[in-house]
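Q: What structure does this chain adopt?
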Amino acid sequence: MEIKQISVFLENNAGRLGEVTRVLADSGINLRAISIADTADFGILRLIVNDYEKAVAALSAAGFTTRITSVAAVEIEDTPGSLAAVMELFRKTSVNIEYLYASLEGREGKAVVIFKLEDHDQGLSIIRDNGLSMVESF
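A:
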């Protein structure tokens, strides 16, 4: 199973991130995971939300440029070494991880890591074949 991630392209100006979160709040969208990467001129805000289609519509209506990407949300034990074990699986199978970040979601004793994989289908197969649990929805 895959999760849809929204990437929002933002000018690196004060208040832009606040505008995005306000648009989502006003639309009743709940954030489940969030990450931002920036340069001097712009940033890429990556979001997992409870209703990505409604979020994209609201953000587009507010003038934001968005893109949808498929990512894998993997539930791991919230213990030292759990992420390292998953990373080792990807290393052994030569699956490149473009980026990752953690989610606000999670059960007691668990963490959820969002992976953007270069070869998404191969990555999903590795996750399934090694008995890892994927979060199917937020």
